[in-house]
């Protein structure tokens, strides 16, 4: 129904952003809300409306390719929107494509909610069907922020990143394994999430 929405980001939390367009605030769930900032800049977010008997939700992405990959992922039996967002939040879709093409189940089961059965289903359903929507030139889902923003509020940023990881489905025990290393860094929320996911997917 909605292909994209253009507007200003007015609110961000670990699960979603709010985009205001003509005095209407759209709640949009996105893989990593912290790639966005609250300001008056007009952003284009490519959206997918998910409808179920007990749920109507908007999911949003920084590019049309991300949206297409999300749609491919939720077409796989066993992967819902939350699981697809967790996979997209890794920031490196080319790794996902490579894992599917090479039938690398060990890599795929590292994502929250993806067991051996679901990984096998992903390979069965998606192998040979992803190259056209994840070109090599696809930008990272994680946008680097200005260096001057990195130094301040790193503790709050780490807390926000931890909450975002929980929302994506990572267990507290898994998160706790990478927190000590993250505490040594002074990063933005977005960068903490990126670094944590790198470590969690090793």
Automatic annotation (TrEMBL):
Coiled coil: none annotated. SUPFAM superfamilies: DNA helicase RuvA subunit, C-terminal domain, Nucleic acid-binding proteins, RuvA domain 2-like. Homotetramer. Forms an RuvA(8)-RuvB(12)-Holliday junction (HJ) complex. HJ DNA is sandwiched between 2 RuvA tetramers; dsDNA enters through RuvA and exits via RuvB. An RuvB hexamer assembles on each DNA strand where it exits the tetramer. Each RuvB hexamer is contacted by two RuvA subunits (via domain III) on 2 adjacent RuvB subunits; this complex drives branch migration. In the full resolvosome a probable DNA-RuvA(4)-RuvB(12)-RuvC(2) complex forms which resolves the HJ. The keyword Endoplasmic reticulum does not apply. It is found in: Cytoplasm. Gene3D superfamilies: 5' to 3' exonuclease, C-terminal subdomain (1.10.150.20), DNA helicase RuvA subunit, C-terminal domain (1.10.8.10), Nucleic acid-binding proteins (2.40.50.140). One of its GO terms (molecular function) is DNA helicase activity. It comes from the Bacteria. It holds the Pfam family RuvA_N. InterPro entries: DNA_helicase_Holl-junc_RuvA_I, Hlx-hairpin-Hlx_DNA-bd_motif, NA-bd_OB-fold, RuvA, RuvA_2-like, RuvA_C, RuvA_C_sf. Residues 153-202 are annotated as: Domain III. Has three domains with a flexible linker between the domains II and III and assumes an 'L' shape. Domain III is highly mobile and contacts RuvB. This is Holliday junction branch migration complex subunit RuvA. Residues 71-90, 106-125 form the Helix-hairpin-helix DNA-binding motif class domain. Belongs to the RuvA family. Its main location: cytoplasm. It comes from Priestia iocasae. Keywords: ATP-binding, Cytoplasm, DNA damage, DNA recombination, DNA repair, DNA-binding, Helicase, Hydrolase, Nucleotide-binding. The RuvA-RuvB-RuvC complex processes Holliday junction (HJ) DNA during genetic recombination and DNA repair, while the RuvA-RuvB complex plays an important role in the rescue of blocked DNA replication forks via replication fork reversal (RFR). RuvA specifically binds to HJ cruciform DNA, conferring on it an open structure. The RuvB hexamer acts as an ATP-dependent pump, pulling dsDNA into and through the RuvAB complex. HJ branch migration allows RuvC to scan DNA until it finds its consensus sequence, where it cleaves and resolves the cruciform DNA.
């Amino acid at each position: 129904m909605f292909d994209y929405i253009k507007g200003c980001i007015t609110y961000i939390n670990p699960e979603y952003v709010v985009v205001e367009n003509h005095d209407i605030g759209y709640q949009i769930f996105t893989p990593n809300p912290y790639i966005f900032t609250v300001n008056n800049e007009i952003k284009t977010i490519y959206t997918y409306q998910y409808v179920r008997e007990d749920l109507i939700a908007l999911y949003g992405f920084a590019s049309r390719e991300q949206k297409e990959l999300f749609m491919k992922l939720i077409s796989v039996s066993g992967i819902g929107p939350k699981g697809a967002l967790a996979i997209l939040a890794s920031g490196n879709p080319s790794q996902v494509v490579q894992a599917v093409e090479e039938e690398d189940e060990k890599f795929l089961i590292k994502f929250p909610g993806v067991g051996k059965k679901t990984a096998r289903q992903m390979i069965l359903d998606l192998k040979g069907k992803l190259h056209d929507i994840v070109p090599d030139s696809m930008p990272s889902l994680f946008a680097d922020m200005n260096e001057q923003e990195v130094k301040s509020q790193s503790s709050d940023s780490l807390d926000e990143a931890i909450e975002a990881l929980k929302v994506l489905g990572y267990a507290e025990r898994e998160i706790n394994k990478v927190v000590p290393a993250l505490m040594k860094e002074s990063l933005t929320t977005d960068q903490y999430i990126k670094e944590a996911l790198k470590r969690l997917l090793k």
